[in-house]
Amino acid sequence: MSDPVFFSDVGSVILSDIAELAGINLPEGVDGSRIVSSAAPLETAGPDDIAYMDNPRYAAMLAETKAGICLVSPRFADRVPSSTLSLVTPVPYRVFAQVLARLHPSALRPRPLFSGSGVSPGAVVHPDARLETGVAVDPGAVIGAGAEIGSGTVIGANAVIGAEVRIGRDCSIGPNVTISHALLGNRIVVHPGASIGQDGFGFAMGPGGHLKVPQVGRVIIQDDVEIGANTTIDRGASRDTIIGEGTKIDNLVQIAHNVVIGRHCVIVAQVGISGSTTLGDFVVFGGQSAVVGHVTIGTGAQFAARSAVAENVPAGAKWGGAPAQPIKEWMKEVAWLKMMISSRSPGDRKSSSGNTGDDSQ
Q1: Strand, helix or coil at 4?
Q2: Per-residue model confidence (pLDDT) at position 353
């Protein structure tokens, strides 16, 4: 079996450019014209590679790395081997990401699978749809009546773009994505299997049965949003569901109708946000968190994984737990519970199992 290299479009960057990205000066005597053409993790990097370090879990790997160059945060700078050139920056991961983008530009967003531009054989585009020059449509995709798609956008195989949908320029819509009743801005990435604009979960409950509430709103997604695989974003019931610019949404996230998400939020995998909830800018949710409907989350709030949010949360708060509460209070409760369990005698723990009697007959 062959061993393909999926990101073979390797560019190059010189050392002085990396220093400029990091906002630092190169050490005295270092050749700024040195070419860097590959990046690697600490444990496998060689003399021609650049690596990065900003996590104490990898301190042992840093001490043994063979990397030629290492972007490193100040607290670990004294642990870099003498054979490795250290570039000290408070944001090594961010600079490393910029270097990777220059080395492998095709990895920034999904590319066409079939052809660079134009409508591929097997795709179906309604005559009333309008595609600007430079749109690529892969086989099996369906684009409905009145849809408008901007130049540089890629529509993946078997994707379905509904009637009157608007998609801006330089977007990537992955395979098997469905988009309806939605307006998307520029430079948006939607990964495979995501569904955007379907009915919200709206029913008027009653003893005689549950009456469906028509969902007549839209989904509006602003510029530079990224949406993970198999995520679902419901359209609004009467208001619009809105995703603010720069927000990053992981795989397997559920966003319900009428939700408004601010700018540059980060929502990790398996989060569920119930209807009519509002998030401010720069909100962060750890994985598997859940939010009840009709609450407001303030700007900059952060939530630990598996948080269960059942009330309004002020701006800048850090919460965790189920039900979620300020992180310090939650950690005190966890510590107290752990102490109580560890302080009980083995006999107490055995009796609490409910199996202290003689089960023989």
Answers
A1: coil
A2: 52
